[in-house]
Design a protein that fits this description.
Shape: extended
Strand content: 25-35%
Low-confidence stretches: none
Largest sheet: 3 strands, antiparallel
Radius of gyration: 18 Å
Number of helices: 4
Mean pLDDT: 83
Order of helices and strands: HEEEHEEHH
Number of domains: 2
Length: about 130
């Protein structure tokens, strides 16, 4: 599916998650023309791909990076590099606590106010 969901005008789509019966915890995710593999590194899995939590966390990081790119493009801000790092703490997950910490790094010809994005922690701080 070239361009993804938004490029398709917001039309509905089907994402299929199919168990690979050759490996106990491996699944294939089919999104348009793309296929991803997920697996577990424990509980009988073979770690042949990221876990569902890995994909969830990665999707949040990717959304953050794409939002920064969209916003900076919209505001004509000369952003060159965007990197999001996520640190997961799932040590208390069984108690219902799942923590993600994020760090955003943006490079380019930014003025002082635009560089101060870390102070705010939100995209609108990068303003023209």
């Amino acid at each position: 599916m070239e361009g993804g969901w938004l490029a398709q005008g917001g039309k509905s789509m089907t994402i299929r998650v199919v168990r690979n019966q050759q490996q106990p915890m491996r699944y294939e995710i089919h999104i348009g023309e793309s296929t991803l593999v997920i697996d577990m590194s424990s509980e009988g899995g073979e770690a042949s791909g990221p876990t569902p939590h890995d994909l969830y966390d990665a999707a949040l990081g990717a959304c953050m990076a794409m939002t920064v790119l969209w916003y900076s493009t919209h505001k004509h801000i000369a952003v060159e590099g965007i990197e999001v790092s996520l640190d997961r703490d799932a040590t208390q997950e069984h108690a219902g606590i799942y923590r993600l910490s994020t760090a955003l790094a943006v490079t380019g010809e930014l003025n002082a106010a635009q560089r101060d994005y870390e102070r705010c922690g939100t995209v609108p701080c990068i303003d023209s």
